[in-house]
Amino acid sequence: MSKLTDHKVLVFDVYGTLADWETGLYNALQPLLTKYPASEAWTRHDALNAFISVESDLQSQFPDMLYSDLLAKVHEVLEERLRVLSGEPTGETTLAGKSVPTSPQDTTGGASTSAVVESNSTTHWDAHKAFGASIQNWPIFPDTCAALRRLAKHFKLVVLSNVDRESFRHTHALLSEGPSWDTVTSNRDIYAYPSPNPHKYWHPQAAEGSKSPFTLILTAQDTGCYKPALGGFRSVFDYITEQPELFGDIGLAHGEEVKDKVMSVAQSLQHDHEAAQQLGMRSVWIDRQEAVTCNVSAGGPGAKPKWTWRFETLAEMADAVEREVADSEGIS
Q1: What pLDDT, in 10s, does the model give residues 69-83?
Q2: Three-state SS across the chain?
Q3: Is the Cβ–Cβ distance between 286 and 312 less than 8 Å?
Q4: For residue range 215-247, what is the model confidence (pLDDT) as tens digits?
Q5: Is the bond leading into 63 cis (omega within 30 degrees of zero)?
Q6: Does residue 70 contact residue 122 with C-beta atoms inside 8 Å?
Q7: Which of 2, 87, 115, 303 is buried deepest, with most CB atoms within 10 A?
Q8: Does 22-136 match 4-20+139-328 at the fold level?
Q9: 181 to each of 137, 140, 209, how far by Cα in Å?
Q10: β-strand partners of 216
Q11: Whose CA is closest to 47, among 33, 31, 37?
Q12: Separation CA 205–CA 191 (nearest Å)
């Protein structure tokens, strides 16, 4: 049977696995939920399920929309649904192909959905935009940062996340020096996407002063798709092949492929583990027990597991890796 340490590259989901996106989302939704009678009594479970149903639909419709804009659109759609459920008047429907305006008069922008109904009030636009920008306030799980540093001693770490570059800058700083802003001593700009970027993708450790544990970062903005689409994973495989100097010798034996040395590490069964299974990758399920979303396989109860290893925290995974290393070195 294969071991964790048979692999050389770990591909991380971020939000839900390393960052507590559900708490971040739920906190950011509070002004909206308390505004309408229909959602005043919603539980955390109700709110997150309502969010994920809209988000999944918009991600599949608009794979090239920046995630911060997509979040704003989710907020907009949810508000319109809550207006209807609360018996309040609705606004005017926007034309398809437009993003959240910066003001009621600004109707330029990128992709949208004809199902979205927008308000004529600047207050509404500001609320949608604020929700889209809330990523920077999403907390990091307390075990994450130390575990990443431990794992980086044994693997090359890669981010593959349904996020945009600018939004990830804040999370990147926390993952590198956090888990809270109290422990981040460097300028946050060190953890921003380089401009100009001399590489095809984001090499975070190339920035002077960077303490990033990651060798490579790919956002949905880079790959042009949202997981569970397979394009992002395939981009990682291709880049490992194209950039051997970045990843070193991954130890391919005769007949092995890059995917055999790469492992997905994620909480979401739908977004990551099912995709990994389709590609023939092994995966580690970080089963955050408090999670409401993304922890039910599309196969339903009794279906064959989509993951190879399971841990409840990233720290538990790091412990298991270190035990394997110690066993291989004969250390008691």
Answers
A1: 999 999 999 999 999
A2: CCCHHHCCEEEECCECCCECHHHHHHHHHHHHHCCCHHHCCCCHHHHHHHHHHHHHHHHHHCCCCCHHHHHHHHHHHHHHHHHHHCCCCCCEECCCCCCCCCCCCCCCCCCCCCCCEECCCHHHHHHHHHHHCHHHHCCECCCHHHHHHHHCCCCEEEEEECCCHHHHHHHHHHHHHCCCHHHCCCCHHHHCCCCCCCCCCECHHHCCCCCCCCCEEEEHHHHCCCCCCCHHHHHHHHHHHHCHHHHCCCCCCCCCCHHHHEEEEECCHHHHHHHHHHHCCEEEEECCCCCCCCCCCCCCCCCCCCCCEEECCHHHHHHHHHHHHHHHCCCC
A3: yes
A4: 999 999 999 999 999 999 999 999 999 999 999
A5: no
A6: no
A7: 115
A8: no
A9: 10, 10, 17
A10: 158
A11: 33
A12: 9
Give residue for tokens 């659109």: 73
What CATH number does domain 22-136 carry, 3.40.50.300, 1.10.150.750, 3.30.40.10, 2.70.70.10? 1.10.150.750
Domain boundaries in the chain? Answer: 4-20+139-328, 22-136
Domain 4-20+139-328 fold is Rossmann fold (3.40.50)
Q: Is the pLDDT of residue 214 over 90?
A: yes
Would the pLDDT of 252 be above 50? yes
Strands 9-12 and 262-266: parallel
Q: Distance between CA 18 and CA 41 in Å, rounded?
A: 29
